[in-house]
Design goal:
The chain is an alpha/beta fold. 30% of the residues lie in helices and 15% in strands. It has nine helices and ten strands. A four-stranded parallel beta sheet has the order 2-1-3-4, sandwiched between helices. A four-stranded parallel beta sheet has the order 8-5-9-10. The chain is globular and about 55 Å long.
Length: 256
C-alpha cells in the first residue's frame, strides 16, 4: 500500500498497535477503531478523556518512546511532523503512514484509505461530513486574510486544506494566489491587500479577542475554531455549520 506521499507501507496484517503523531488522526482512529491506539502526542486532545501513553509533541516526539511502544504503524503528516523523525522511525523498521491532504476531497480520500488499512468499516461521521460539505457555496464572496501565526506573521496561501474549507464558505483569500502555501508577509503588506475580513483561528497560534484583532483595526475580525478549520477527522461533520456560524459574527469593529 502507498500513503499520501507515495511511500510504500508494508502491512502484512491489520495493525493492532497504532501510534499517532497527528491530533486529527488520533481522534479519527480513536472514534472509529477503539482500543487500537498505543500512543499519541501531548497535543492530541480529542476525543476527551483519551487515555493512552504520550510521546511528546508533534514537532519533537520522543522517538525512543515510540519505539518502546512497539507500534505496527505510526501515523504522521507532512506539515505537522518533521521528515527526520519519520525517516528515523522508518530506519528502525517501523511502518509509517504519512498524510498530506491539501483540499477537502483529498482529505476524504486520505481518511477513507487509511481507515480501510486499519480494517475499519466506513464510519458514520465520515459519511455525515461528506454530506455536510455538499451544501452550496454562498453567493456572496468576502475577501479575507487568514493569519495562522505571528512573530513572524504567517498567513494561509494557496493550496491548503484550511483554505479550501474557507473557499467553500464563500471566503476569497487575498493571499490565495501567492506561490507559497504559507506566506510570511509584513503587517503592512497584509493591510495593503485590503481584505474585508481578518479570520483568526485559535490554533496553531492561539489568537484571542485581546490578541489579534487590534493589529488590523478598523478591518473587521472574526475568531474561529482552529480545530474545525484545520483538522481532518470527525470534526468535519460539524465543521461546516460551526465555521459558517462563526463567520457571520464580527469583533464589533467597523471600517471607518
Amino acid at each position: 500500500m502507498k500513503d499520501d506521499v507515495g511511500r510504500e507501507v508494508d502491512l502484512p496484517r491489520t495493525p493492532r498497535r497504532v501510534v499517532s503523531l497527528v491530533p486529527s488522526l488520533t481522534e479519527a482512529v480513536a472514534v472509529t477503531v477503539p482500543g487500537i491506539l498505543a500512543g499519541a502526542t501531548d497535543y492530541c486532545t480529542h476525543p476527551a478523556g483519551l487515555d493512552v501513553p504520550r510521546i511528546g509533541g508533534s514537532k519533537y516526539p520522543d522517538v525512543e518512546r515510540i519505539l518502546d511502544l512497539r507500534p505496527d504503524l505510526v501515523l504522521a503528516n507532512v506539515e505537522e511532523n518533521r521528515k527526520e523523525d519519520v525517516d528515523q522511525l522508518a530506519a528502525a523498521g517501523v511502518q509509517v503512514w504519512t498524510t498530506y491532504p491539501r483540499d477537502l476531497d483529498a482529505a476524504f480520500a486520505s481518511l477513507t484509505r487509511l481507515l480501510a488499512a486499519l480494517g475499519a468499516d466506513r464510519p458514520t461521521w465520515l459519511a455525515d461530513a461528506e454530506v455536510a460539505w455538499t451544501a452550496p457555496t454562498p453567493d456572496r464572496r468576502v475577501t479575507a486574510v487568514i493569519p495562522v501565526w505571528r512573530k513572524p506573521w504567517i498567513v494561509l496561501g494557496g493550496g491548503t486544506f484550511a483554505g479550501d474549507l474557507l473557499r467553500r464558505l464563500g471566503i476569497v483569500n487575498v493571499f490565495g494566489d501567492d506561490p507559497g502555501r504559507y506566506p510570511r508577509p509584513s503587517l503592512e503588506t497584509i493591510r495593503k491587500r485590503e481584505p474585508e475580513l481578518v479570520i483568526l483561528p485559535d490554533e496553531p497560534y492561539s489568537f484571542t479577542a485581546d490578541d489579534g484583532p487590534e493589529y488590523f483595526a478598523p478591518t473587521e475580525s472574526v475568531l474561529i475554531s482552529g480545530r474545525h478549520l484545520t483538522w481532518y477527522g470527525p470534526s468535519l461533520a460539524e465543521a461546516r455549520t460551526l465555521l459558517a456560524e462563526s463567520l457571520t459574527k464580527r469583533s464589533g469593529r467597523r471600517p471607518s
